[in-house]
Amino acid sequence: MDWEHLDLNPRIIAGVKKANCRSAKDILCVSGPDLQRLTHLSKSDVQRLHCAVAAAVRNSTPVTALQLIKGECPALEAGYRLSLACPVLDRLMRGGLPLRGITELAGESAAGKTQFGLQLCLSVQYPRENGGLSSGAVYICTEDSFPIKRLRQLITQQPRLRPDLPSSLINSIRFSDNIYIEHTADLESLQACVSQRVPVLLKRGLVRLVVVDSVAALFRSEFQADEAIKRSRHLLTFSNALHRLSHCYGAPVLCVNQVTDVVDGPNPGRCDYGLVESKVLPALGIAWANQVMVRLMLRRLEGCVESEERSSAVRKLEVVFAPHLPRADCLCGVWEEGVRGIPDDGLTLQQQSC
Description:
This protein is α/β, with parallel strands linked by helices. The protein is built from 14 helices and 14 strands. The termini are far apart.
């Protein structure tokens, strides 16, 4: 570290050099009394040294408790969430997705998982007062091609999904310009994406949401059944990269996950990860489950639900585990305008095939 560039008395700099301290770590990882003994500086000089070095290496301006109390930093408030663009779904999630940590949405094929990802890519672009983050999203596809036609349909239907917002606000947002699409065909390209390209978008403020659809596809295809340890190592590397991005930039991470069938039989050691009577479990096992902060399950049920003379297959969105949420669920449907929760007394449920 170049000590001369710090705003310090030459006497302090001389003491640091005499103690053979060469980096910020040599200063910040040593207690005050030990640094006094090594540098032969006074207590006040060591305090000035600690403050100057800490200020030189920090990446962002510190936030005081008073600023949090006054509400001057809403992105750091524990209660701030990214809205799901539906009051019923937001009530289930107590406001939406947490800004820090990995949220997993698991479910069988055709349950509607991708619909949630697309809807969040639009919701994140709204201002904070409307549940968004005033930024874009990056959508990482590992299986199918990106559903661009469905995205365009959702964009044109935003006035119907968000009738509470003025049309001038909705028309002022260029939704398609703020969604960055990545396709990764193998684990190497996936790791390069989350460690190289995505951080650039986050650092420039172009995105504040990361969607991975799906997290299980590549890990399932590239490892054999007897390579569990090797797969776990790659999972940890991948999840650590996502956690760093989420916590550093306050960006929610949504990982869509596949499911695996539960094999019936006596197995008292099997972990259901919170699912008591389910015939399927989220893929990738306990190694991945330990990396997830919020786990959601989406199921497609029998029957249809009607709204405005339109019908949709019924889905159930269930909170499996989360540090801030109770075990709960709600019914929802997928319409042209997107995913909407079903109020207990608001819509008619028909028990028939859709």
